[in-house]
Amino acid sequence: MLKLNNVNTFYGNIQALRNINIEVEQGEIITLIGANGAGKTTTLMTISGVVPPRSGEVLYNGKPIQKLNPDKIVKMGISQVPEGRLIFPDLTITENLDMGAFLRDDKDGVKEDMDHVFELFPILWERRKQAGGNLSGGEQQMLAISRALMARPKLLLLDEPSLGLAPLIIRQIFEIIKKINKESGTTVFLVEQNANLALKTAHRGYVMENGEIILSDSSENLLANEEIKKAYLGL
């Protein structure tokens, strides 16, 4: 479904990604783990067209997308939930969700999807007329995920969904991520600093250091890898 071939991404003269090769099959949950500054967020921004690669290819269903604008990539079926949530604080929950569906013109489908995200996150239905900025951090993360789902993505990019949240809320959000994948068939590319949680959620994982992929394997094998345990799992 998604393939990165020898992708190199720069910020000015600073190289953030070096010859990245990643493959994501339809229906999978894939995770990318690594320390802060390893290049995980840049990888997602490269896929979504926000920071285009200087060289290499990003293929989505066999078609190159590395030169497309972000709105075109969203229309093709890729949505990103950014780190820090970045909801619209002055808009209501419903208005935030409408913004997620901005590129769509199927009103019946939009209503159907809005009903669906309210089923996934009932607290958003209860507070649908409140401004997004008045929500707790966990509720804002739920809203950010829901806003991305309103674009009806086939591939959902999640950047640090557990960041700054209480353990109970984190468990709830990750259960929803698994539910979205299983019930809707949505493919998930998960960037997460909580490596233990990420690997227990995903089918396969990639490990990134200093802008390079140093290891890839099944999540089960990565959880059992002694070097990964020491470096990322605190074991």
From TrEMBL:
Signal peptide: none annotated. Keywords: Amino-acid transport, ATP-binding, Nucleotide-binding, Transport. Residues 2-235 form the ABC transporter domain. One of its GO terms (biological process) is L-amino acid transport. It comes from the Bacteria. GO terms for molecular function: ATP binding; ATP hydrolysis activity; branched-chain amino acid transmembrane transporter activity. PANTHER family: HIGH-AFFINITY BRANCHED-CHAIN AMINO ACID TRANSPORT ATP-BINDING PROTEIN LIVF. Belongs to the ABC transporter superfamily. This is Leucine/isoleucine/valine transporter subunit ATP-binding component of ABC superfamily. The lineage of its organism: Bacteria, Pseudomonadati, Thermodesulfobacteriota, Desulfovibrionia, Desulfovibrionales. The gene is livF.
